[in-house]
Design goal:
This protein is an alpha/beta fold. The chain is about 50% helix and about 5% strand. It is built from 23 helices and 7 strands. Helix 3 crosses helix 7, helix 12 packs parallel to helix 14 and helix 14 runs parallel beside helix 16. The chain starts with 10 loop residues before the first helix and ends in a 15-residue tail after the last strand. The relative contact order is 0.10.
Length: about 525
């Protein structure tokens, strides 16, 4: 029942991919900036030449701009990444025979997309492929997101399509090609931030702290935690022989232990990666868990895979762009393992780093006059005001961090989160034709999902934590860590280790990639 394993991307393939990502970012950012300027997104008055569709798009983009704190360059980045991902994911789907016509659910090639272009109102095959990719990936691309709906000028579309088309096939068929995309996209930004020597927080955190975790690290941690638990209970399972990094002691028992406090069946094991990046830990854990459940419960491969996506696997990520890659990586793994495209349960992956910059009165309006709902939304607004800096460090169950600077509103101090979550679901599933409300609702929905996952407890929490010394932290992050993680505040890595301890269920475990210095430096003595 083991899945076929694709090879890792060669060093030459990595170089070509990095060059392509860097060039693509330059091309698409210029194109998006031109479109946003033409729409007058930052202008007080709407340009007279805009037709009705352009006016609707402008309203949505202005709402997005407010959500991002009014930072135009950040809006450009958001739009650019959505446009890049649409084409990149389309080629991933096409090269793996997973690109479908959304209406007829029939497989299509890029050549088919070329033939269909005129009939669906697109200028070329990449326009068709990007649209089809967005429509069959609703959990990844929100079709009501104005950044997805934005249309580049022909020269920008052609330039971006050329870059995607020239990438070698091995990028799209390797096991780790998708994982390198984000790091390469951010390479120039990371160099610029490091050269500036400025304090790190907000939008700078992702490029500086996120590193692609090599496959052997991921497999070693998972095979000696999740794998060891399984091997202790099913020593004769054929799955055990496939885990080359699983270590045994002289008695033939898993060297890491048998994890006796964990659940007895795979269906009840939950795995969380709170810093999931491009989803490497999630993809490997998915592969292990669905095969466990298929063997233990006598399920078909597809039944086991859907069950794992629904019940067992969870991820959080600071950067919404990485969150999108992680969701796609997990979906791609499920489709490959299941033998082709199918409608999947939306993976339990959310962005914990969406900052709430929209005025609180706009959020309260989503409640439609329901006072309990309004109160819940205000509390969520407070909790995630600095989410782009704090991300998964946020703990919705601890109210001490959540005093509004006005002193008028305390967050989850007097209302249980378990009571708040259903109220938010009720508010945020309402349909709307207003583009600004749709943007606001989507942000609130994503934030509520992140708060939900941050409030749970998991059998295994596994990740490669971000590393950042306190001397490099921006003011918000520095103060938060000093107040919340007093004994671990010297580095973001140890702060995350401390935060993760609150995510672990009783008798649960963590398996982390960590720097070694906390094991011996005097500054970590109390933390140890």
């Amino acid at each position: 029942m083991a899945e076929p394993v694709s090879g890792v991307l060669s060093s030459g393939g990595r170089r070509v991919l990095e060059s392509g990502c860097v060039e693509a970012r330059r091309v698409v950012e210029v194109g998006c900036r031109a479109v946003l300027d033409g729409l007058g997104v930052v202008a007080d008055r709407r340009p007279e030449h805009l037709d009705e569709a352009a006016q609707v798009l402008r309203r949505g983009l202005r709402a997005k701009l407010r959500q991002l704190g009014g930072e135009f360059d950040v809006l450009v980045d958001e739009c650019a990444y959505e446009q890049w991902h649409k084409l990149l994911f389309a080629r991933f789907l096409a090269e793996n025979n997973l690109l479908l016509h959304p209406e007829f659910q029939a497989p299509v090639t890029l050549a088919d997309c070329e033939e269909l272009a005129e009939s669906v109102g697109e200028s070329d095959r990449w326009g068709v492929a990007g649209r089809f990719a967005a429509e069959i990936l609703p959990g990844i691309f929100r079709l009501d997101d104005p950044c997805v709906g934005l249309r580049l000028a022909p020269e920008s579309r052609v330039g971006l399509a050329r870059i995607v088309e020239e990438l070698p096939v091995e990028v799209f068929t390797s096991s780790d090609g998708l994982g390198w995309v984000y790091q390469f996209w951010q390479s120039e930004t990371k160099d610029e931030i490091n050269a500036s020597e400025r304090k790190i927080g907000g939008a700078d955190l992702g490029p500086v702290t996120q590193l692609f975790t090599e496959n052997y690290m991921v497999r070693f941690l998972l095979e000696n935690s999740l794998g060891a638990w399984w091997a202790a209970r099913h020593p004769g399972s054929p799955l055990v022989n496939g885990w080359e990094f699983l270590r045994f002691d002289d008695d033939g028992k898993p060297a890491a232990g048998s994890f006796d406090g964990w659940p007895e069946v795979a269906a009840e094991v939950t795995v969380m990666d709170p810093c999931c990046g491009s989803g490497h830990f999630l993809v490997e854990a998915f592969s292990m868990l669905w095969q466990m459940r298929a063997e233990e419960e006598n399920l078909s491969a597809v039944e086991a895979q859907d069950a794992v996506l629904t019940d067992n696997l969870f991820g959080l990520e600071l950067d919404p762009r990485c969150t999108q890659i992680a969701m796609f990586a997990v979906a791609l793994a499920a489709w490959k393992a299941g033998g082709g495209w199918r409608q999947l349960p939306v993976p339990n992956i959310a962005c914990s780093g969406i900052p709430v910059k929209t005025p609180v009165e706009e959020w309260k309006a989503l409640a439609g006059g329901d006072p309990d709902l309004e109160n819940a939304l205000v509390r969520l607004h407070i909790l995630f005001q600095d989410a782009d800096t704090l991300g998964s460090l946020i703990d919705p169950r601890r109210s001490a961090e959540l005093t509004d600077p006005t002193g008028l509103q305390r967050s989850f101090e007097d209302v249980e989160w378990d009571h708040i979550a259903p109220l938010l679901t009720k508010a945020l599933t309402k349909e709307t034709n207003d583009p600004a409300t749709a943007v606001l609702g989507a942000t609130a929905e994503g934030t509520a999902k992140a708060a939900d996952y941050l409030s749970r407890h998991y059998t295994l929490v596994t990740t490669n934590v971000p590393y950042l010394g306190r001397l490099l932290m921006g003011a918000i992050l520095l103060e938060f860590c000093a107040n919340r993680f007093v004994e671990a505040a010297s580095d973001l890595a140890t702060c995350f280790a401390d935060r993760i301890s609150a995510l672990i269920a009783p008798e649960g475990s963590s398996a982390l990639v960590m720097p070694q210095n906390w094991l011996f430096l005097v500054s970590y003595k109390r933390f140890r």
